[in-house]
From TrEMBL:
This is Phosphatidylserine decarboxylase proenzyme. GO terms for molecular function: phosphatidylserine decarboxylase activity. It is a peripheral membrane protein. Keywords: Cell membrane, Decarboxylase, Lipid biosynthesis, Lipid metabolism, Lyase, Membrane, Phospholipid biosynthesis, Phospholipid metabolism, Pyruvate, Transmembrane, Transmembrane helix, Zymogen. Binds 1 pyruvoyl group covalently per subunit. One of its GO terms (biological process) is phosphatidylethanolamine biosynthetic process. The modification Pyruvic acid (Ser) is found at S209. It comes from Pontixanthobacter aquaemixtae. It is an enzyme of class 4 (lyase).
């Protein structure tokens, strides 16, 4: 019917739905809720039990996994995380993502690139998604500290996981999941060799954390410091989009 709105599966009407809870978080929420119910109804300690029940609800909310509408733009580099753009800087990409990894697989070229850092608070969705579609070329876990993820040096000193994805045309994007002061585990959903679509879920970080995205040379960010991003929906940049130098454009 003309004017009818369809969902991403090609049928029905678009409407709001309760987000699902990722299996990784269900066990924690169920345990917390069970302790709360025992405290309230068996131990008759309501002053303790009700806050515990609210805490269980917070756990379920933290692990929520809403569906997202991914932009169908082949040039789009999509936000891998919900959160706030906390840093935009020109840096050298991590050594783990650059050059030959020893197996003949070539990574990112050396040289300064623009890094966009997205800070996730405990209130944000912590399911991370890939900025582009392609093949997972590298997945490298690095142990480290648990300082505040908002600090610039967290990208080099905190526990982190690097992911490198290569498109079929050879374009590569590297991004890094970084644990924060509270986060204590980075959980991958993919492995090297996996084929993934743009915006597909690739992992999660428990509690406050950060995700860095390294834009290819010649690509300008389309987001600003302090801007909120939505994983799988917000366009961080477009491939090949670079500002012209003043006086060059005709």
């Amino acid at each position: 019917m003309a004017g009818e709105i369809f969902d991403n599966k090609g049928s029905g009407e678009a409407d709001w739905q309760w987000p699902s809870i990722h299996p990784e978080g269900r066990k924690f929420g169920v345990i917390a809720a069970g302790i709360a119910l025992v405290t309230i109804f068996l131990l008759d300690l309501e002053l303790i039990g009700w806050p515990l029940l609210a805490f269980a609800g917070g756990i379920f909310a933290f692990f929520r996994d809403p569906d997202r509408v991914v932009p169908q733009d082949p040039h789009a580099i999509i936000a891998p995380a919900d959160g706030m753009v906390s840093l935009i800087s020109v840096v050298e990409p991590p050594a783990e993502l650059v050059g030959d990894d020893g197996s003949g697989q070539i990574g990112l070229p050396p040289g300064p690139v623009t890094r966009i850092s997205i800070f996730l608070s405990v209130f944000d969705v912590h399911i991370n998604r890939t900025p582009i579609g392609g093949t997972v070329k590298r997945l490298i876990y690095m142990p480290g500290k648990f300082m505040s993820a908002e600090l610039d040096k967290a990208s080099e000193e905190n526990e982190r996981q690097h992911i490198l994805v290569e498109r079929s045309d050879g374009v590569m994007i590297g991004f890094t999941q970084i644990a924060g002061m509270i986060a204590r585990r980075i959980i991958p959903f993919v492995k090297p060799g996996d084929m993934i679509a743009a915006g597909q879920r690739v992992g999660l970080i428990r509690f406050g954390s950060r995700v860095d995205v390294y834009l290819p040379a010649g690509t300008e960010p389309k987001v600003l410091l302090g801007q909120k991003t939505v994983a799988g929906e917000t366009i961080l940049a477009e491939l090949g989009d670079q500002k012209l130098l003043e006086g060059i454009s005709q």
